[in-house]
Amino acid sequence: MNQVTTCTQPAVLAPLELDFTPVPAPAITDLELEIAELKKKSLDIEKRNNELKHVLHSIYTTPAQKRALLEELEWKHKISRRRACRLLNLARSTCWYRAACEGRLPPKQSKPIDALSQAAMIVQLKKLSRQIKNGFVPDSESVQEQFATGLHRLRLPVAAKLAGMNLNLAIDIFLAWCERTGK
Length: 183
Known about the structure:
By secondary structure, the chain is mainly α. It has 8 helices and no strands. The longest helix is centred in the first third of the chain and has 30 residues. The chain folds into 2 domains: about 60 residues, no CATH class; about 70 residues, no CATH class.
């Protein structure tokens, strides 16, 4: 078995003719121009937005001031709370949680304490003492006077005198009296 091998020569390749002339740039369409303009406007708006955020942050420094501005944004401009917080660089948790010193309100009463019946007066004094203990009502002269008047009517003159100097001690005496008498 004789095998015949044939040898083939590689084909000769012709040299490539390369064209080095520059390719013309593709024509810019109207849509591409409009996209470029919109990108530029978007960057300008973002820059102005950041500047306004900086100004707002420097003007409204306390959370209470920011909350007031936040409510104005929500109600006047119909912006959602999440978006308004993002605009003001305000954590949404500060919208809900307030410091203990904020939110202190003077006690609301429909009638003066000396015009109430004894049972209603005791209920009112208990409510007022809870509010004071929880920090919702400030320790002011009007509160001390109300407590002193109520304690005088309950025939607790020593506690009434203490109400002017140490309201918390007077409240403790009043609450102990309520427990002892079952009222």
